[in-house]
Amino acid sequence: MGVAIIPLLAAIVSFVFTISLLDQFFARRKPYQLVWAAGLLMYFISTGTEFWMEVSGINATAYRLWYLFGAILVAAYLGMGTLYLLVSRRTAHIIMTILGAISIFAFVRVFTA
After folding, report:
1. Contact (Cβ atoms closer than 8 angstroms) between residue 87 and residue 50
2. Whole-angstrom Cα distance, residue 84 to residue 40?
3. pTM as predicted
4. Shortest CA distance to 96 belongs to which of 41, 44, 34, 40?
5. What are the pLDDT tens digits along the chain (113 aa)?
6. How far from the centroid of its chain's Cα atoms is residue 59's Cα?
7. Which residues contact 46 (CB under 8 A, 6 or more apart)?
8. Helices (DSSP H) in the chain: which residue ranges?
9. Which of 34, 78, 110, 111 has CA 20 to 30 A from 67's CA?
10. Are 6 and 50 contacting, i.e. CB atoms less than 8 angstroms apart?
């Protein structure tokens, strides 16, 4: 349980930041806040599954969730939030559409492997 505390704390902190970003999004309606909130929610899922595997042992579902969210999607969505700050909204929407399609593809590949 000693090592499991680290992913548990990371999950809790990321969840708190997710709620904070969602609150900001509903107040200001900035797309980068919503995308960053999605990325942090994915990080919460990733570290939550890491905690789950530390406590109860590795299993296929937890590993697939960790791999999909932690290894594939978190960085992409956090980076996408930054793109909403740096490029035109139209360009960001186009890239977000591509990211959404790739995310669906990744989901299917991870859970059918």
Report:
1. no
2. 16
3. 0.93
4. 34
5. 678 899 999 999 999 999 999 999 999 999 999 999 999 999 999 999 999 999 999 999 999 999 999 999 999 999 999 999 999 999 999 999 999 999 999 999 999 99
6. 20
7. 65, 66, 69, 70, 71, 74
8. 5-28, 31-56, 60-65, 74-86, 89-112
9. 34
10. no
